Each structure stands twice: as C-alpha cells, then as structure tokens.
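Why do we care about 3D structure at all? Because function follows from shape, and shape follows, mostly, from sequence. That is the central idea of this module. The next example makes it concrete: a single protein chain, its amino acid sequence, and then its structure expressed as tokens.
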Amino acid sequence: MTVFNEFEVWFFAGSQHLYGPKTLQQVEENAKEIASYFNQEANLPVKIVYKPTVTRPDEITSLCREANYNPKCIGLITWLHTFSPSKMWIEGLRILDKPLLQLHTQHNQTIPWNDIDMDFMNLNQTAHGGREFGFICARMKIPTSVATGYWKEQSLHKQISKWMRVSAAITAEQSMKVVRFGDNMREVAVTEGNKVFAQMQFGYSVNTHPVSELVDVVNAIAQSDVDNLVEEYEACYRFSEATQRNGSKRQNVIEAARIELGIKKFLQQGNFSAFTTTFEDLHGLKQLPGIAAQRLMQQGYGFGGEGDWKTSAFLRTIKFMAKGMERGTSFMEDYTYDFSASQELVMGAHMLEVCPSIAENKPLLDAQYLGIGGKEDPVRLIFQAKPGPSINASLIDMGNRFRLVTNTLETVEQPHALPKLPVACAIWKPLPNFRTSIEAWVASGAAHHSVYTQALDMEYFRLYAKLRNIELLVIDEDTKIEQFQKEIQWNDILYSK
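And the structure:
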C-alpha cells in the first residue's frame, strides 16, 4: 500500500487545565501510548503522527491551521480523554478544512469496580468529553466521523482504516486532473454536468484535449516499446486464434498496444489521473481504445466511456480508496435483464471497457467487429466477474447538488456461456430484490454508467458522502420503494434552500 506512504494523520488528545499538571501528564502519556500502538500493531494504511495535548483555544486553532497547510496531513483524529469545554474548539473547527475523526475510546478497558474514585473519573472522561465535543460539531455542522470501541480492538482499527482510506482519496481527489478525449456522446443527458461546480465541490479539474493531440503521442511511440507490451500481453492473457502470431488480427493487437502506450504517456505527461473517450471522436485512431482503457483502469486510472467525466473521476477516487485490497473495481454499465421467474438477473458490461481487476479467471484477448465507431476491430479482454458481494455507485449532477446513488448487489456465477458476446461482463442480483432495486435506481435519476466495486463495503460510500457533504441515496436489503421515494422528496426540500 505504498500509495498511502506519502500521507499522515495527526492524533492528539483534548483536555483542559482544570485537572492540574498530574492529570495532564497522564493524558499525554496515554495518548502517546495509543498513537504508538496504532502505528505498530493496528495495521492502519496511513501513519499516525502524535501531536501534544491541546488545552486552550489558541493551541487548538494553531493546530488546525497547521494541519490545513500541511500537504501530508490528510486529517485529524482527536481523543477527548477528559472533558474539554467545546467553546474552546469553535475557532479551530471553523477554519479546519481537513477530515475530522473523534476517537471515542478509553485508556482502560474495564471499570476498576473496587478501586474507582474521583481521580479516576476526572481522568477517564471520554463518555463525558466526547458528548461535549459531539455537540459543538453538530452545532457547527462539522461532518465528523466517530470511531467507538476499545483502542486495542480490531473492530475499532477497521473503523479508523476506512476513514483513513476515504480521507486519503479525498485528498488525492482535490488535485486530480481529468482529460476528455472528445466530448460527451451527443444528445445524452446524464453524462453531462457542470465542470466548474464539480471542481468547487470535489477539487478536481476536467478539461478537453483534441484527439489529434493524443494521436500525435500514439504515433510517436517506439516500435520496440510496442513489441515489449505485446509480449506482456502474451504473458498475461489467453489469445484467440486470430490474435496469435501470424493470426488474421495480429496487427490489431499491435495497434492496440501502441494506443495503450500513447494514452498512458499522455496521461503521465499531463499528470492526469482519469480520462474519457468517445466512439464519436476517434479521429486518427485506428480503433476504439478497448484493452487500453481496461489495463489503465487496472493500474489505477479512472475511466468513463462516451465522455462520462463524472464516472471517470469517481472511479479513480474509489480505486484510490481500495489500493492494496484483494478484489477489484471497474467502470460498469447496466446492459440487459434476465426476467426468468426463478432468478431475475442483471447483466453488467460495456462495449469493451470493463476492468480486469474484477476477473474471475485469466482473460481472453481477442479482436472482433464493433459496429459503433466505424474503425478497425478493437482489441479487448473478455472475462466474467468473480462472484460475491458488490456495489454499484452512480454520481450525478442534479443542478443544485451532486447526488450519489448506491446499490448493494450479489454478483453470481455466470449461469450460461456467452459464445457470441465478446465482452467482459458481470451478472448480479440487485438487493433488496430485482423490482425494488430497479425502480429505486430509476426514480433517483442514477445513470446507466456506474462504478462497480467488490473491494469496498457501503461504509466507505457513507463516509465519502458525509465528508464531501453530498447527498447519498442507498438501495440495499432494507429498502422499501415507498420510503425511498419519500426520501427523494425530503432531500429535494432540504437542498432547495
């Protein structure tokens, strides 16, 4: 997980001078012990940096200001070891623009029933101080996360780890650059959006570069580099007969490799983390980028088809959160249904661009006809997704706000072979059931494009929406369509102000 090595989270305790120097010294020692334990034993993705206990308004404000301007700091964890009057925190919280987590724990695991006295009570007041801190955060509408439990418990470490991953992804998102090769697919509504509004909300910038600029980079790729990449393909994938050496589509493989190298070089030169393509603008490219988009997604880049820059950017963010996890994340599209009475299913796929990080088996590399785009037969990787719990997420622009819609899924084994469908796909049962899921997704306005992940659970999306202060609609095993539609109406009233 070296991607997180450049970051750090600051950890400090909050107290006050009322209890005297002996108590404050113990607070300091306990906080240092917890910080050290987190770094050495908790297997957290981001390093904890201990900061001295704060006891006065100027100390709190100074620490928050310092955190704002430190590029390595992705967030603050504060522990209200004792009671810390929250009016002291107002100015610091007012200026803080980094994610905040309240660690709601105690140094002792159990109450010392026979020995407890007022000294113990004055020192171990998380139950007391945490509520005071919670009030001021609620009063100031600070999107604070709370991790509750004994500090040596793995369940608590998992809460902190999720918050760290989301905070790191948000930090990376603020400097993200998205390049659009061509515009959005003509006449499509949901892939449009206000790019200035998005930059104000999320921090990333979205700009278009002519496909001709990309073509210049593609055409300048050295043949030796292309040959090396084709060898890499041969080591990683099964090849169809047509794409093998001396096969009828071998040249298509060579051109696909050249396109992949060209796109990657363009992204690296421009410091872009995500990109879009569109089949309506392929001027100078010999084929629609298929395997290029698939492999670059697997390397962590965001991608959106038909100019869908919102999905591209969000995919990059979710992939960043999931760095180092076992299962994958991909660009996806709800494509077609199976209405069989015994097992209603959704097939997710796209023309070409599904990330092999979700593949169950070694993908097949093939080049086949694609009527859309009007170019040579594009090369793509064909596979089926691993079965297991999954989530679809769609980020859409509602005009006055961004809405994030999520749906829990159960991806299943592909029930039948697909001998005539040359694309990667995932087959799933949406929760809570087929009808409720589809009706809720459509009612929310969520897009046909989505970010599909098997790596993250719903808590990551809840944290992201909270820290980003955006609307979240969740479709899961508890969803009732009537209540879901009411939630949409309530949110419309809330965000109309």
